[in-house]
User: Which sequence fits this backbone?
């Protein structure tokens, strides 16, 4: 009877260990997929740093390279000028520049951490 009890307990421990390993492997796969999606997003998205000149013109620069990207009087003009110059890319305004656009909600321009969380939530919903 004692040997049977030892085998049952050992089986339970091995089973719990295997479940934990499976969950870890699955979580690692989700994290890898999320990182890949975020990298793809970054590859086709330009982070814009915006400066306002004395003439009220807004000048946008690529935050990674400091190269000039576009200009405009307001957000709509910046969007139009950006799409004209970079039709295959998306953009977002860096949080540091959002004070120049009081009508913009901070939620419109998510951080990397927020993007990762959103992709994980979408993946979780799709697999349940």
Assistant:
């Amino acid at each position: 009877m004692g040997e049977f009890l030892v085998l049952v307990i050992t089986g339970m421990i091995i089973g719990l260990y295997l479940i934990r390993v499976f969950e870890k492997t699955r979580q690692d796969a989700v994290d890898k997929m999320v990182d890949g999606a975020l990298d793809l997003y970054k590859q086709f998205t330009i982070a814009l740093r915006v400066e306002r000149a004395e003439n009220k013109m807004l000048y946008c620069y690529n935050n990674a390279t400091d190269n000039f990207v576009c200009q405009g009087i307001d957000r709509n003009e910046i969007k139009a000028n950006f799409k004209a110059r970079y039709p295959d890319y998306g953009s977002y305004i860096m949080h540091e520049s959002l004070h120049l656009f009081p009508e913009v909600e901070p939620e419109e321009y998510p951080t990397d951490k927020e993007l990762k969380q959103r992709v994980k939530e979408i993946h979780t919903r799709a697999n349940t």
Notes: The chain is about 55% helix and 15% strand. Residues 9 and 15 are 10 Å apart (CA to CA). Residues 32-126 form one domain. The chain has a mean pLDDT of 85.
